[in-house]
Amino acid sequence: MKIIDGKALATKMRVELKEKIEKSAIKPGLAVVIVGEDPASRIYVRNKIKACGEIGIQSFCYELPATSSQKEVEDLLDSLAVNPSVHGILLQLPLPKGFDSESAMSHIPVEKDVDGFSAENLGLLTLHKERVVACTPLGIMKMLESEGVDLCGKRAVVLGRSDTVGKPMAMLLLNANATVTICHSKTTDLKEICKTADILVSAIGKAKFVTADMVKEGAVVIDVGMNRDETGKLCGDVDFDAVKDKASLITPVPGGVGPMTITMLMYNTCITAFKE
Ligand code: NAP
Fold it and tell me: What is the pLDDT of residue 52?
């Protein structure tokens, strides 16, 4: 078993991005918009802003109160859409209750969609013409690539079908010629399906849901989940201690997928800034 060190890979990729930015005449700019006081979202935003500063991306942070109107949020996004210093716009999700996220997201032009959540970017991914891809699944692909995992002809199982993680993850694996099964809360025989996986990606948000008896000997196990265990400690979807001896490669939580997600946000900001 080998633990995939997402933190180390993220650090390496950030150094490469920093060098690229230093050599460029364009200073990439990322605007982050957060609505409301959700403490977890605030921490995510703070981490993103800090990471941008470290590699030379200019960040613009807008904190709006939960009492803001839908129009105020959308007007701000419209102004960022035409701001030439802003190459990427990130609207921190979820928005507080009562907001229409889909409508708000539609005010982010595709050229500045660094999350890859727009219908156009998701469509391009489906057509295997991907341009900007959702940060978490993209970071997972970079980790698999760095470990030399050959996906062609392998059986991949993705737990979770969210538009932001599960679906784009499945599409990337399919585009890499894996045979992909997506499981969700209505899936029957989930355990049997998981046991067929050469590559198992869990993105459901349930602490220690994936147990050793669900994992094939030698499988690659990627844990996207960010949960709290019974003692309040951060943990993934996978019962790491029990599964690690069966897996050939496994990501830890923390220190696995999380640091790569933020790095991919910066990677995507460079794509939109440099029009790659
Ligand atoms: P989400 O939108 O809540 O989607 C969860 C998915 O899991 C849904 O498709 C749901 O099925 C499925 N699911 C829930 N319970 C299940 C069960 N018992 N059996 C099978 N499937 C089940 O969550 P998300 O945004 O994709 O995030 C998933 C997890 O990843 C969360 O813990 C989140 O915090 C974490 N995350 C981490 C990062 C990172 O950078 N590390 C980034 C993003 C998300 P239905 O569709 O049928 O409801």
Answer: 96
Q: Is 184 in the pocket of ligand 1 (CB under 6 A)?
A: yes
> How many structural domains are present in the chain?
2
Question: Domain for residue 204, yes or no?
Answer: yes
For the cut 90, the answer to whether the pLDDT of residue 201 exceeds it is yes
Burial category of 152 from C-beta neighbours within 10 Å (exposed 0-12, middle 13-18, buried 19 and up): exposed
Does residue 126 fall inside a structural domain?
no
Q: Quick check: is 18 in a domain?
A: no
Ligand 1: residue whose CA is nearest its atom 1? 162
Catalytic one of 115, 223, 237, 239: 115
Residue 224 Cβ contacting ligand 1 at under 6 Å: yes
- Judgement on whether residues 164 and 223 belong to the same structural domain of the protein: yes
Residue numbers of the domain that contains 42: 26-111
265 lines ligand 1 (CB under 6 A): no
60 closest CA partner among 36, 78, 33: 33
Q: What is the pLDDT of residues 88-134, one digit of tens each?
A: 999 999 999 999 999 999 999 999 999 999 999 999 999 999 999 99
Instruction: Specify whether the CB–CB gap between 36 and 62 falls below 8 A.
Output: no
Task: Verify that 107 and 139 share a domain, yes or no.
Answer: no
CA of 10 to the centre of ligand 1 (A): 23
Answer yes or no: do 146 and 249 share one domain: yes
In a domain, 70, yes or no: yes
Position 106, amino acid = S
**Is 58 annotated as catalytic?**
no
What's the distance, CA 275 to chain centroid? Answer: 21
Mean pLDDT across the chain: 97
CATH of the domain at 182: 3.40.50.720
CB distance 222 to ligand 1 below 6 Å: no
Other beta carbons within 10 Å of 40: 9
Ligand 1 center–CA 263 separation, angstroms: 21
